[in-house]
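1st attempt posting a full record on here, be nice pls
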Amino acid sequence: MDRRSLLRGMGGLLLSGSAARVWSKPALAEYPFTLGVASGDPTPDGFVIWTRLAPQPLQPHGGMPARSVSLHWEVAEDERFRRIARAGEVLAHPELAHAAHVDVAGLQPDRPYWYRFYIGGGEASPVGRVRTAPAAGQLSQRVRLAVAGCQHYESGWYGAWRYLSQEPELAAVFHYGDYIYEGSGITADPMAGRRHLGDELYSLDDYRRRYAQYKTDPDLQAAHQAVAFISSFDDHEVDNNWGGEHAQDDTPPELFELRKLAAMQAWYEHMPVRREQFPSPGGLRMFRRLDYGRLFRMHVLDTRSYRVSGETMLGYAQEGWLYRGLSNDARWNLIAQQVLLMPLLRRAADSGRLVSTYKDHWGGFPESRERLVRAIGERQLTNVVVASGDSHQYFVGRVPADRHRPDGEAMASEFLGTSISSGGDGMPVLPGSETLLADNPNIALNNAQRGYFTFDITPAELRADLNVMDRVSSPGGTLSRLARFAVMPDRPGPERC
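the predicted structure (as tokens):
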């Protein structure tokens, strides 16, 4: 079965079902919307809305019977739902853990909407808010994005998500991955007092329960209700440091493929992503492109699934897709991806030479990075900004044309975000940071506290605000701004404000 046929069949699955198996007015003993609601991937005329029915979220099947449930949904122009813009029904199937995804279309560009789900004759979900993207061809004067990820449940509390949910005028959040962590409770930070349920994840039920545990967090739910997520995944959604066909622990590829299929199905079930991201026997296509009028184009990459050691980080098909997409008339090109792109060199203990030791980042795929840098140069682009994650610390700097000359010509700006909670409280300066910055003059800032950053994007400049929490080891931490940088569309390289 080809992908088109599979998606067509999936559309039938989501929109229809045997009358004998569909429960239109279920009598559930407990509140079913315990995991909240979410929206994602805004377009000029719509977005995705999501929920999952789970009256007992940490129990097998979320406490739901093995029957499809008919859910009503509404999208309104006002918070009180007096002006309904779109409404309909969707089936929540047991095969997809009673998750529901609705691709809403036919709306007006660049304006807020409110949405909710409810069961016929029963209870309603929380209300979510989401904003459509600007119209094609529109040059917006300002769009605000947030960038966040790496939210190890056991390592700390999610106060940063609570602050993000209160950010004014956010259009969307790019989540760079590590939404869950697959390890067992032995990795817990005893200061935080939060423990994973169960051992390391392998089965579909394992992954489902872990997502449910994370999604019961009220601060994370608040962020999802407040703003659309543009969701990607990194390694911990499957297995630490996996890439392509290879697991961390040399699992035979045919067995690792089974684990990836389970992990990717659970990712789809719990993320507000479109039907095109539905997993198939050939894998799950996560990379995609979103346009915010003529202000910026966002290229969302997958830096895990197509790796070939020593050859390519993205796979050649995704590389070609990215290079073609860089040719556009947008004021900015935003590459939204998972791992550090710019060189990060350390001195070898034996020789004292500067070498790249971060093989899980783009540094382990130097030819692939050179092809990307060359593609930017061939198009004479000066407006490329990269948003990254994974490292649990902030790195802000320039992507040089020549990796051997980090102080040479810059081809792009990179903002690598810290974690929401992974790594615990962290610290402003890690041991050896001064030497690291001296050896890497392309890096303007390094910090290892927790938090998130925002982009204020205008035609004239892109401004980045880096925010940090004073602690995540206990609830009630305080957020403050660490630094502000600006990038101009005709001059790559961040400048501190």
